[in-house]
Structure formats: C-alpha cells, structure tokens
C-alpha cells in the first residue's frame, strides 16, 4: 500500500510539473489556432478583457499624461480620454484575433501584417500563477498571463516604451 501511495504521489508530481511547463505553450497555441479559425469564442476563453483593458489604459494614460505635462489640466483630461477610447476600440475579441492570427489589418492592408512569431518569443515565469511571453532578443514588451482556475488568461500587454517595431 505504501508503494502505491508513493507511486501515485510521484505520478501526480510529474503530471503537475508537465502541466506547469507545457500549459503556457498549449494556451498560446490554442489562442493562435482559435484566431486563425476565426473562432472568437474559443480565443476569448483565454482573455480577461475587462482586466486587460484596464491595465493597458493605465499604461497609455501614464504615457500620455507625462507627454502633456506642460499643457495643464485640459491636456491631461484629453489625453486620458483618448487613451480610453483607443483601448476600447483595440482590445476586443476581433482585435485579439488579428494579433494572434497575424491577419492583415482591415483598416490598413498596405501596412502588412501584425505578427507574433513563436520562434522569436519565449516564456518567462513570474511565479507559479503568472508568466509573460517576451521577445528572445530582449526588446521590451510582453504578453502577461495569469492563472485563473486551471487555465491561463491574458491580463496585460506590457507596451514597449517607444512603440512597436
């Protein structure tokens, strides 16, 4: 009986370790597959839109407010309002589908594609309940996921300081 319990504990530990190692990649692949299949419901199961919107709005507000310090209260109010509207337009199920599917941008087809190349990205753990998808070349920016239940949810996008390249 003791050997059976030890074997079960070992199997559980190996399974938990395997899940911990593989689940971020499985989540990202599931999101990409859902986006390419235009299955917005499946993609949305991995995105916490209210939290994601608020986190991105916070970053944009801070940037815009620091850029309009000399413009007074009115400039800060306008900058904050613009940031909120931009995020509400961009952080939607269709917006996430475009990012994860590397689909052409409908509004600007001549500009090419938005790409998330898995070969250029790596997972960095922030602890047991969080990981970030970062670029291997060390350039700033990240997709930040938090553990919710037994799965991962995209909860933040760490924007690069000087925009995207």
Helices and strands in order:
Layout lengths: L1 H35 L3 H5 L4 H19 L4 H19 L2 H9 L19 E7 L2 E6 L6 E7 L2 E8 L7
Antiparallel strand pairs: 1-2, 2-3, 3-4
Helix pairs in contact: 1-5, 3-4
Overview of this structure, please?
With 165 residues, the protein is an alpha+beta fold. β2 (130-135) and β3 form a beta hairpin. It is elongated, with a radius of gyration of 19 Å. Mean pLDDT is 79; it is low at 103-114. The protein has one domain. The protein has a four-stranded antiparallel beta sheet. Helices cover 53% and strands 17% of the residues. α1 packs across α5 (93-101) and α3 (49-67) runs antiparallel to α4.
**How confident is the prediction overall: mean pLDDT?**
79
Q: Report the span from N to C terminus.
A: 59 Å
What would you call the quaternary organization? single chain
**Domain module tally:** 1
**Main sheet?**
4 strands, antiparallel
| Number of distinct helices | 5
Strand order across the largest sheet: 1-2-3-4
Order of SSEs: HHHHHEEEE
Helix content: 40-55%
Beta-strand content: 15-25%
Q: Tell me the Rg in angstroms.
A: 19 Å
Q: What general form does the structure show?
A: elongated
Number of distinct beta strands: 4
Output the structural class.
alpha+beta
Brief sketch in words of this structure:
By secondary structure, the protein is an alpha+beta fold. The protein has helices at 2-36, 40-44, 49-67, 72-90, 93-101, and strands spanning 121-127, 130-135, 142-148, 151-158. It has 5 helices and 4 strands; from the N terminus they run αααααββββ.
């Amino acid at each position: 009986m003791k050997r059976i319990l030890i074997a079960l504990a070992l199997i559980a530990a190996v399974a938990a370790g395997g899940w911990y190692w593989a689940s971020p990649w499985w989540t990202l692949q599931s999101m990409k597959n859902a986006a390419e299949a235009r299955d917005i419901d499946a993609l949305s199961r991995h995105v916490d839109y209210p939290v994601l919107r608020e986190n991105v709005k916070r970053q944009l507000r801070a940037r815009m407010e620091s850029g309009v310090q000399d413009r007074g209260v009115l400039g800060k109010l306008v900058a904050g309002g613009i940031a909120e509207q931009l995020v509400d337009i961009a952080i939607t199920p269709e917006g996430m589908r475009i990012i994860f599917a590397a689909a052409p941008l409908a509004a600007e087809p001549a500009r090419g594609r938005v790409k998330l190349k898995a070969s250029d990205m790596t997972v960095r753990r922030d602890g047991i309940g969080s990981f970030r998808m970062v670029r291997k070349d060390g350039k700033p920016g990240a997709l930040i996921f938090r553990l919710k239940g037994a799965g991962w949810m995209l909860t933040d996008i760490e924007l690069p300081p000087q925009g995207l390249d």
